[in-house]
């Protein structure tokens, strides 16, 4: 049972320049409504990139995978709430104190600003690494017990988590590859339809769209797989 009714594709804006990032948004919004800003783009441009994407009505997934002492992460999360991002990531391996401090800080800051609280998504094990599903399950349980809204995991573990965790929660899945395409540096890949069937809510896709000869056509094909997956 997925955590949300309408699964969505998120484009990972893993590019070097503001121009390239805005070019993809201009080309793909509103077929894609959420764009992921990670360490690459944020290190180069800072909050400006988030503001620029918001000006184009796009929603932002801030994927900085926070992992630090509780006080520092609480401050970073509050800053992300002020930036009005839709969702953000933290490493569950950062520990319970860190996760609870983040949840408390996000909730407080959102109340002060009367903004919706961003979805707080815990990174279990990177999809570029090999792992056991039990390890992902233990981390997911820990994150959700601390108040996170959901977790990042590969499609391979999504089904396992849906079976083992009865409560409703969000699953974000990277490592999506169209059929017959290469894996790049990802170890645990799946197709759009496999990820949806496994119970993922948000599919994070980077290189298969960014490097496609025609990114719009590729997006339309992937959206076709997404809408067709439930049938
Ligand atoms: O290019 P590709 O589709 O492999 O991009 C996947 C995106 O998802 C990258 O931006 C990567 O940082 C991110 N990600 C991941 N594995 C995680 C969390 C995020 O690959 N566990």
Detailed description of the structure:
With 231 residues, the protein is of the alpha/beta class. It has one domain (8-228): Aldolase class I (TIM Barrel), CATH 3.20.20.70. It has helices at 18-28, 39-45, 47-55, 70-82, 96-113, 133-145, 155-164, 192-198, 207-210, 215-228, and strands at residues 8-12, 34-38, 59-66, 87-91, 119-123, 150-152, 170-173, 202-205. It has an 8-stranded parallel barrel, surrounded by 6 helices. β1 (8-12), α1 (18-28) and β2 (34-38) form a beta-alpha-beta unit. α6 packs across α7 and α7 (155-164) packs parallel to α8. The two termini are 15 Å apart. The structure holds cytidine-5'-monophosphate (C5P). Cytidine-5'-monophosphate binds at residues 12, 14, 36, 38, 63, 123, 126-127, 152, 174-175, 184, 186, 204-208. Cytidine-5'-monophosphate (C5P) binds at residues 12, 14, 36, 38, 63, 123, 126-127, 152, 174-175, 184, 186, 204-208.
Instruction: State the CATH architecture.
Output: Alpha-Beta Barrel
Helix content: 40-55%
Spatial sequence of strands, sheet with the most strands: 1-2-3-4-5-6-7-8
How would you describe the shape? globular
What oligomeric state do these chains adopt? single chain
Write the element-wise H/E pattern from the N-terminal end onward: EHEHHEHEHEHEHEHEHH
Regions with pLDDT < 50 over 5+ consecutive residues?
Answer: none
Name the structural class. alpha/beta
Q: How confident is the prediction overall: mean pLDDT?
A: 94
The count of strands amounts to 8
